[in-house]
Design goal:
By secondary structure, the protein is an alpha/beta fold. The strands form three sheets. It has a seven-stranded mixed sheet, with helices on both faces. Strand 6 and strand 7 form a beta hairpin. Helix 1 runs antiparallel to helix 8 and helix 3 packs parallel to helix 4. It binds pyridoxal-5'-phosphate.
């Protein structure tokens, strides 16, 4: 029998999703902020000690809420890496912000913290690339000295931790003023589309609930804090339905098991590819010492774009799908003419030379062996 296709990603079902979704339907509350939304909020707030969480329909929506909460206005400058997903920038551009793109580090696709100081603006958005923490001590210190807000785009960083300069391990997403997560089907924990906002400063909480509920004080009304609800601020419909929350809750119950399997797969890639990578001048993921590894992604950085193309082709010929990642936003057709012209060579290098390998809960050991054998048999210079 010919080998079957190994996809880049395959959404994992724990088996309880349909049951909880049916339960939500059966109990007759399908709109947002019901039993399952509250269970998910409680999970995140109790397991990770996050002060206040709000499920959203995507991380993109959570980022848009962050831009609204920070009162980003026409011409406000916002710093972020160029090597990121379009939503990181788009959420702020929608409010009229001017994006100041920053390069990645030479040894990691995450934001180069040392190049921020000269570019002080209104807010810094960091992206914990591959789930790996940025150096949040440096970021928070710059933010404090220049009175800036920090948004952590933790789309990929669920269940991952940062060890701060005092030696305390804290969850990613709990450090900046506001954080955003994604539960898109490519993430470790999924709900199809889905996301979450975490508010780490008391003074954002009330307004966030209002923005979340179409600009109304509906949440306060349901808590009995006001006797009628109405339009009190700008907002939109950022909350997901109970069906999505029910799906997500099933995933959360299996989080430990999902993370453990992903880590086994990640470690096998890392150890098996060690010598092959170094002899071909390929860089394997470089998790910083201050970050734990949530095994969100296994990636390789080639020294030549041609080598990446050869491996993608070789894997594809063997029915294995691998994919590259972000394209530098400062060079995008939409934004390049607004970029200030600074070269961001590391961002460009990751755009041209980074490749992601299949990594998902249901990838079997024999499938991973097939991927590894195929990689080890590639002729990069032939
Ligand atoms: C860094 C980053 N931010 C935001 C997003 C958007 O997430 P979502 O698809 O949940 O809107 C993504 C998507 O993968 C991402 O990689």
């Amino acid at each position: 029998m010919p080998p079957s296709i190994i996809p880049f990603n395959k959404p994992h079902l724990t088996g309880k999703e349909a049951h909880y979704m049916y339960d939500a339907v059966y109990h007759g509350q399908l709109a947002g902020n019901g039993k399952y939304t509250k269970l998910c909020h409680k999970y995140f707030e109790s397991i990770y000690g996050l002060q206040k969480c709000l499920l959203t329909t995507s991380c993109t929506d959570a980022l848009e809420m962050a831009a609204l909460l920070l009162d980003i206005k026409d011409g406000d400058e916002v710093i972020m890496p160029s090597f990121t997903f379009v939503s990181t920038a788009n959420a702020f551009v929608l409010r009229g912000a001017k994006i100041v793109f920053v390069d990645s580090k030479s040894d990691h696709p995450g934001i180069d913290e040392t190049s921020i100081e000269d570019l002080i603006t209104k807010a810094i958005v960091v992206v914990h690339y591959a789930g790996d923490a940025c150096n949040m001590d440096i970021i928070m210190d710059i933010a404090k000295r220049h009175k800036l807000f920090v948004v952590e785009d933790a789309a990929q960083a669920i269940d991952n931790y940062y060890t701060n300069s005092e030696g305390h391990q804290v969850p990613l997403g709990s450090i900046g003023h506001i954080s955003t997560y994604s539960f898109h089907e490519t993430k470790n924990i999924i709900s199809g589309e889905g996301g979450m906002l975490s508010l780490n400063k008391e003074n954002f909480i009330n307004r966030a609930e209002i923005i979340w509920e179409k600009g109304t004080n509906r949440s306060a009304f349901f808590r009995g804090e006001v006797n009628k609800y109405g339009w009190v601020d700008i907002g939109s419909s950022f909350l997901p339905s109970e069906i999505i929350a029910a799906f997500l809750y099933a995933q959360l119950e299996a989080l430990k098991q999902i993370q453990a399997r992903r880590l086994v797969l990640w470690n096998k890639y890392h150890s098996t590819l060690k010598y092959w990578a170094s002899s071909n001048n390929i860089i394997r993921p470089n998790t910083p010492a201050y970050s734990t590894n949530n095994a969100h992604m296994y990636y390789l950085v080639f020294s030549k774009a041609g080598h990446r193309a050869k491996l993608i082709k070789h894997l594809k010929e063997n029915k294995i799908l691998s994919v590259f990642h972000y394209q530098s936003l400062h060079k995008s057709s939409f934004y390049h003419h607004l970029h200030d012209g600074r070269e961001l060579p590391n961002s460009d290098r990751y755009s041209e030379c980074l490749l992601r390998l299949p990594l998902f809960f249901d990838l079997t050991d024999s499938e991973q062996d097939r991927i590894l054998d195929t990689i080890l048999s590639v002729e990069l210079d032939g």
